[in-house]
Write a structure and sequence with these properties.
single chain; 458 residues; mainly alpha; two-stranded parallel sheet; 19 helices; 62% helix; binds arginine
Length: 458
């Protein structure tokens, strides 16, 4: 089959060589963006007097028809035409005749593909920002119901100090807030038009780049034609922000997996987000959480892959850059899927308040309370720490907890201990007293929830 660029060729490549070079298998996902970009381009060619109005009308009609067919899934693509751009151009020529060949005036596939990628990513990033917001809403709603639910807080995965379960959930809300900020901020670089940069050097036709930018709702244009066609920073940035988001989701998944284990029993994942074992009838596995944790790896992989693709490329376009697409498409799909599944899992999980609270009572995570108690009475904290450490040792020897130790033992350790230590040791009080800004005290947690709710409404 004759190539659209076949003029200077006397031989054709073998089918398997064509297959290797083609991107149509995956860049057909850009079909709508590609046609929309072309409609803007040809409109501009008309406005600038580069093509006669009747040709522009014919081409636009043809493209609009193709766009409709694309939306209905009625187009069939061919490897013979390599990529989405040439496939559409060929279909246009088939549809309206040789006048379709005028579409590519003053343009190159290099600025065309970059334009498609910008348009595609803009759409997807906006979708992702909204999904993050929805996840935050789900988390805040859960948090509101669990302000006074106690859970052990951990460091080194050792019980450290009791906290409000809502406080734990809200920590993730803030992580996702930073993700949302990063994606939002990146939009200003995504929403820039490379169209009109041509192959690399601009064009001799009197085009109007600002007009195509406006028609495609871009905020601005790339200032330099070489940069316009060879920049993939915006995709790398997307992969980087996605990696960070997946890392956050993955950490949370790890906690859900731990919490739903027999060892913790803090939550139960709903049947609708769990699976069974083909051999062990008793099992309920947190597969979805594990999968999100696992898929994080592929997103990191895409980031490293594209950074590596780009690192040795001279200006401007190089075919290596065709490798930017699959990782980006896969990341979009992975991130969108993970966010939806994760929100569903949180929304439907059962929080086992009894088990969480039981855990806060059966450990030494209230030891800091005792040290603080002495410190507040003037004992240097370091000494208080030592005294309480010894009391913990006594408890361990006797197989009891601090709450069970008689007052006379306390008073032997320090005469400053009084009856009210038992109140201080109560995990509820321990949490409630942590009213420093951003702490787990109930009043602080409620404040944080209110703040986030306002933020999410804005
Ligand atoms: N399929 C190509 C890509 O994805 C389109 C740009 C091709 N440009 C070129 N000069 N061969 O990068």
């Amino acid at each position: 089959m004759k190539k659209l660029w076949g003029g200077r060729f006397t031989k054709t490549a073998a089918q398997w060589v064509d297959d290797f070079g083609a991107s149509i298998h995956f860049d057909q996902q850009l079909v709508e963006e590609d046609i929309e970009g072309s409609i803007a381009h040809v409109t501009m060619l008309g406005e600038c007097g580069i093509l006669p109005k009747e040709d522009v009308e014919t081409i636009k009609k043809g493209l609009t028809k193709l766009l409709e067919k694309a939306k209905n899934g009625e187009l069939s693509f061919s490897v013979a035409y390599e990529d989405i751009h040439l496939n559409i151009e060929k279909m246009l020529i088939d549809e309206i005749g040789p006048v379709g060949g005028k579409l590519h005036t003053g343009r190159s596939r290099n600025d065309q593909v970059a334009t498609d990628m910008h348009l595609y990513l803009r759409k997807r990033v906006i979708e992702i920002i909204e999904l993050i917001r929805q996840l935050q809403r789900v988390l805040v709603e859960k948090a509101e119901r669990h302000v006074e639910t106690l859970i052990p807080g951990y460091t080194h995965l050792q019980r450290a100090q009791p906290i409000s379960f809502a406080h734990h959930l809200m920590a993730y809300v803030w992580m996702f807030e930073r993700d949302r900020e990063r994606f939002t901020e990146s939009l200003k670089r995504i929403n820039k038009s490379p169209l009109g940069a041509g192959a690399l050097a601009g064009t001799t036709f009197p085009i109007d780049r600002h007009l195509t930018a406006k028609l495609l709702s871009f905020d601005s244009i790339y200032e330099n034609s070489l940069d316009a066609v060879s920049d993939r920073d915006f995709i790398i940035e997307f992969l980087s922000h996605s990696s960070m988001l997946m890392m956050h989701l993955s950490r949370f998944c790890e906690e859900l997996i731990l919490w739903s284990s027999q060892e913790f029993q803090f939550i139960e994942i709903d049947d609708t987000f769990a699976t069974g074992s083909s051999i062990m009838p008793q099992k309920k596995n947190p597969d979805m959480a594990e999968l999100i944790r696992g898929k994080t790896g592929r997103v990191y992989g895409h980031l490293i892959a594209l950074l590596t693709v780009m690192k040795g490329l001279p200006l401007a376009y190089n075919k290596d850059m065709q490798e930017d697409k699959e990782g980006m498409f896969d990341t979009v799909q992975t991130v969108i899927g993970s966010l939806k599944i994760f929100a569903g899992m949180i929304e439907t999980m059962t929080v086992r308040v009894d088990m969480m609270e039981k855990a806060t009572k059966q450990d030494f995570s209230n030891a800091t309370e005792l040290a603080d108690y002495l410190a507040k009475k003037g004992v240097p904290f370091r000494e208080a720490h030592e005294i309480v450490g010894k009391l913990v040792l006594t408890c361990l020897e006797r197989g009891i907890f601090l709450m069970d130790l008689p007052l006379d033992v306390y008073r032997q350790a320090s005469p400053l201990f009084e009856e009210d230590i038992y109140e201080a040791l109560d995990p509820y009080n321990a949490v409630n007293r942590r009213t420093s800004a951003g702490g787990t005290g109930f009043t602080e947690v409620k404040k944080a929830i209110e703040k986030v709710k306002q933020m999410l409404e804005a």
